[in-house]
Structures are given as structure tokens and as C-alpha cells.
Design brief:
265 residues, alpha+beta, Jelly Rolls, 20% helix, globular
């Protein structure tokens, strides 16, 4: 399961590695079933009379804490669709086993250059048909920096695609080689100050990650990427597991200090 020489070179040069159909169709079907089962319960709990209220971020996007996870509701006014939840693997034992799957662990050892790796955080990303919103150019690095500035560059993510992904249903787009430029200049017009400035990016390296369901995408925290809206009638669901060298605290054990991003370009 480790990176071969070609993948190792591609990861260093381009900042990402794709493995198509790493999970069989029947495995993906089972995971999709668990996702929908868990999401139904999450939404019901969040809408119950004793649930904590939603709140708005600096950019106006709605968040809510429920079921020991943070829910991001879809951005459109009045939408009750969930955009993502973080973390999520504690919500079902079938999710928890993903952290020990060699299809994630072995390549991550090469991606991070570590003998052993462990969890940092995890997300369940849902781009529902016609409602799945875009996300602008960004790196994961500033978000991790707000939690762990000394080691934010030593975190990498793997995405498991639960549906076929293409431009029509909101495929991920990456900038080849952008990880080699360090922290990207942030967008001064962004109220959160976490997004990258698109006017100062070399967009010639943009690559649309169009893959079949069951595929994996590995990338480091410094890779610049974005996603487009889901304008189709199809689902685009993904699982994101972020790893770090073993023995370090998970994100949920750290303190969120967004003011730290002022230290970045």
C-alpha cells in the first residue's frame, strides 16, 4: 500500500497523488449507507427543541454544534442541507475503523515521511444535488496553523470519494506544485482571513480531479485547492481524514486561535 517511486515523485512535484478505485463498489455502497443513516440522525438532533442554536461565522456562514460535532449548514438562505460535519468518525464504529485501514495509513507514512502516523481531524463533506456550494481557493495550512502553528505543515489529508466526481457535481480542483510555494498570500477581501488571494495565484496549474467512486486523493496542507458548486442532480459525498505523525494531540484537543493567521503572509 506504500507509495511507489512514481507516486512519491508525483507527490513531491505536484503535491497530490490519486489512486482510482482503491475501495470496491460494495465497500463504497456500505459506507454511503452509513453516511446517510448518521446524517439523518444528526439533522434530527440539531433540529430538536433542546439543541444548541446555530451561529454565524465572520463570513456569514451558519454553524451549529450538535452530536459532539460541528455542523456547517449550506450557505444558501433558508437551506436546511448539511454542507459538512467535523469531526465525524466518533459517530459510528464503522467510521472509526477507517483510521486503521492500510489503504490510508501506508501511503500517509510516505506522504508525511513518518514511521507511524495518527489522526488529526476528519470531515464528512456533502455536496447535495443543486445545493452543494463552492469553496474558494485556499490551503488547509492556515486552518491548521490556528490550532498548531509549529506543526501545521506536518499534516496531510486523504479524500475518499463516495460518488463519481466531475466538473458537473462539484469536483475538487488543485493547483499543481502550489505546495512548494509555502503559505499562499491570503485574500484581503475575505472576512475570515483564511482564504488565498486568487489575484496572486498562478492558476495555470489548475487540475480538475475527476475520479470514479472509491478513489483516493492524498495531499499536504500547503496544496492550494478549491471546489465548484454541484449543479447536477447527482450526489458528491466525500470523507476526509487528516493525518499527522503519531503521538500528537488531535485537533479537538487543541485551542482554536484564529488571530494567529495574522502572522502569515
Amino acid at each position: 500500500m506504500r507509495f511507489d517511486d512514481q507516486e512519491r515523485h508525483a507527490y513531491q512535484r505536484d503535491g497530490f497523488v490519486v489512486r482510482e478505485r482503491a475501495f470496491a463498489a460494495h465497500e463504497v455502497d456500505e459506507i454511503r449507507g452509513v453516511v446517510e443513516e448518521v446524517m439523518s440522525q444528526i439533522v434530527a438532533d440539531a433540529q430538536s427543541s433542546d439543541a444548541l442554536p446555530a451561529f454565524a461565522l465572520a463570513d456569514g456562514h451558519r454553524m451549529q454544534f450538535s452530536s459532539d460535532t460541528f455542523i456547517q449548514w449550506e450557505w444558501a438562505e433558508g437551506s436546511r442541507a448539511v454542507r459538512l460535519i467535523e469531526p465525524f468518525t466518533h459517530l459510528d464504529p464503522r467510521f472509526a475503523t477507517l483510521w486503521t485501514d492500510a489503504r490510508f495509513l501506508d501511503p500517509m507514512r510516505d506522504a508525511l515521511g513518518a514511521t507511524e502516523v495518527g489522526p488529526y481531524t476528519c470531515k464528512l463533506n456533502l455536496k447535495r444535488p443543486r445545493e452543494g456550494s463552492p469553496f474558494p481557493w485556499h490551503q488547509d495550512y492556515p486552518y491548521w496553523y490556528a490550532f498548531t502553528p509549529a506543526t501545521a505543515h506536518e499534516i496531510a489529508t486523504v479524500i475518499l470519494f463516495l460518488d463519481d466526481a466531475d466538473a458537473g457535481n462539484g469536483a475538487l480542483r488543485v493547483l499543481r506544485g502550489s505546495h512548494r510555494g509555502g503559505p499562499a498570500p491570503r485574500d484581503p477581501s475575505d472576512a475570515t482571513r483564511f482564504l488565498a488571494d486568487p489575484t496572486r495565484l498562478d492558476l495555470s496549474g489548475e487540475h480538475v480531479v475527476e475520479v470514479p467512486s472509491g478513489s483516493l486523493l492524498f495531499f499536504p496542507s500547503l496544496l492550494v485547492h478549491r471546489s465548484t458548486p454541484n449543479t447536477s442532480e447527482r450526489q458528491r459525498r466525500t470523507i476526509l481524514l487528516s493525518f499527522q505523525p503519531a503521538g500528537r494531540p488531535r485537533q479537538q484537543e487543541l485551542t482554536w486561535s484564529p488571530e494567529r493567521v495574522a502572522e502569515l503572509p
